[in-house]
Amino acid sequence: MKYKIFASTTPQTEPVLNKLRAVLKTWQAVENGYEYVFVLGGDGFFVSTLANYNCDSCKVVGINTGHIGFYTSFNGDDLDENFISKLTSFEFKKINLLEVKTKNHSFLVLNELAVYTNTAYPINIFIDDNHWESYRGSGLLIGPRTGSTALAKSAKGAVIFPNVDVVQIIELNPLLHPNQITIQSPIILPMQTKVEFRIKKAFKAEQFPNFYADGIKLDLKNEDTSISFQLVLSRSMFHASLKTKDFIDKLKSTFIKQS
Q1: What's the whole-model pTM score?
Q2: At the N or C end, where does the chain have fewer CB atoms within 10 A?
Q3: Same structural domain for residues 156 and 90?
């Protein structure tokens, strides 16, 4: 088998990386044409790697060396003499990512696209070409199911379980007065839904909102802007447990503390 490894540079990753290389000694490390991609790190590193290496039909294996591991199926303790046999017996599936399109660019999002504005700049939201609301406030988040345990959760969004493929929109600190009232609740939309944000050119460039795709700032000019969103299948295939119990266990170990 041909493989490629992407590893974070954290101290705790290095021993796991060496262990993985030893386990894969009968496989061939290559730069192109790989069948497996191993991503060693936390969820943040996994997200940034996926954005750059969404390869056709390759199998992506996440090995957690960070604190949170919603996107990883293994940790360093799993890298034993049975690892390869377990790995080759697993089912890998494509997952839904959020495709983001602007006038000149198209890219994929695993967690969320975030819009921030410090001037409560108006953003018109359309759902399947129907005007939903004219939002004013600190910003907006939009993302697929996979992002519901990331920034969306911190913004009081819904935690969405596996096998529920939806798009979620969350308002951040909406501006409210008698003539400006928005929904103020997370919106969950079916996977086929097309969402569009429309923003007019600002009088001053510094008033125009800032846009971040999975934490990376987008270079969008101060002009009349339309950004569309829709779920699409990834090109890569992933192994991550879709069992309710496994997801609950991760949620409890990460977020829930009770005596």
Answers
A1: 0.89
A2: C
A3: no
